[in-house]
Write a structure and sequence with these properties.
By secondary structure, the chain is α+β, with helices and mostly antiparallel strands. The protein is built from 16 helices and 13 strands.
Amino acid sequence: MPLRPPLRGVTLYFRTLGPRAQVALCQLPLSLIVSVLGFMTPFVWPSLLASPVYLAGMAVHILLFFACFLIPWERLPHSAYLVIPALDLLAIGLLRNGAAPLLPGLAILVVFPVIWLAASGILVRTSLVLSAVGPLLIMLPSISGKFPHLTAADITSLILFPLMMLAVSLAIRFASANTRLQQRQLQSMGEELRELLAQSTEREKLLMTILDATDVAVAAVDRSGRYLVTNNRQRIFRQATGVADEMPGQGHQLIFGQDRQTLLPPEKRPINRAIAGESFADYLVWAGEEPAQRAYSTAARPLVNEDGRLNGAVVVYSDVTGWVEALAANEELISNVSHEFRTPLNSILGNVDLVLEASDELSPVTAQRLAVVQRNSERLLALLADLSATASAALKVHPKRTDLASLVESSLNSARAEADRSGVRLAADIPSPLWAYADPLRIGQALDNLVSNAIKYSPDGGVVDISAGTTGDLVQLRVHDTGMGMSPDDAARVFRRYFRTDSARAAAIPGAGLGLSITKMIVERHGGGVTCSSDHGKGSTFTVTLPADGPPSSF
């Protein structure tokens, strides 16, 4: 049975005392009883004052009590203090036999030294022997005076009383051993807890050091939105937005949408979305007010317990102000450059067209050179259009119910002349009608890019095949060619802006590496996706996935 709190408090207090005070406290109960007995003797049992044995017992008790304070126990062996309870047996024997037959019950005082010897936990055999032999010797003088006229009660008391004291000693011995074992266990558990606490503290310091060393703001919150763990950068974000420490998802907060003007409603704030169970990434918000306003790309993941219940969330804020401003500057630069180039190019093309209308009056060489000027001017205009499209982060689509079969037919008709010049055969296997939820102008542009690419990268001729089918609520368009192909690594990067494969450069195939990135942008604006699978010398297959009818749930 574990120690109760009051008993543990007494034990701890006892251990703070010095050796002399400890010995005196152990002797104090017996000394108090003997003192009361000595005080009552002249009034209740005056005849005992004439008993030298009784008085000797009193004297021994007094000497033992003062010896507890006078003897330097701290300088002696640890078991030396057991001489006090051993001599207590002698003093009790003198008192009991000196007061017999007036006070035969004084023998019960033996229980005090017996308990002391048993609870000490040292000199086990000696203590057990004294616990049995001491009471026997105390009882023996009074019994021997009746010999040979002993009664059954005398024999019983002579045998039973020492056995009882031995039983008390054994019981206390076992209880003390159990208590010491529990104390050692508690001490061991305490040491383990202190060690675990130290390790936990070290891990917490390491975690906070790592979090503070990162260049992103991190916040872990519970289900109600209260902060559990934050780092320095997140505290800077809170200061900028006026987030309260108590309820970070509530109250007035300077968190704006992408237009930098509209305050986000509470349910659209990153932390509130996270504690609602959402997982998201690249969620752009603006924090603070001008001119110190900063852009943050936020992401969140839920914290769930073993039962799958939501316990909280972790929200990460990345400061992308520089990137957003650089992107805006890049878009503005490209827009301005495109505008400045487009005006003179349109003028050149207009004048070249006017001259070529009177081609009968031109020499063949002049007409040929003007045709080269016209073709390259048109190519520059197309390149400027591509640059403008890729630079625009707000490419608009207006989806509606559209027949993709007609778009495929129009795209093939537009590319047929180029395919004939390259020796490429065009084929299509499209069910008609094939309905999809798409912007016909933008999807037509994407199809033109894919078909044109397939023809360009089939310099030795071949086949470009377009097929389509419906899977559930999605429509898939596949553009397959038998051209030069590319490595799987290049296929994974082919939708990046300005990316061109080494084989395309080596074959001097014209292009700026923008068509496929524009195609990807258009398809993703529809809530769809586009993939590429290819291998060297085995051609390429581009797969476009679009919603079949109506926008997808996430669109």
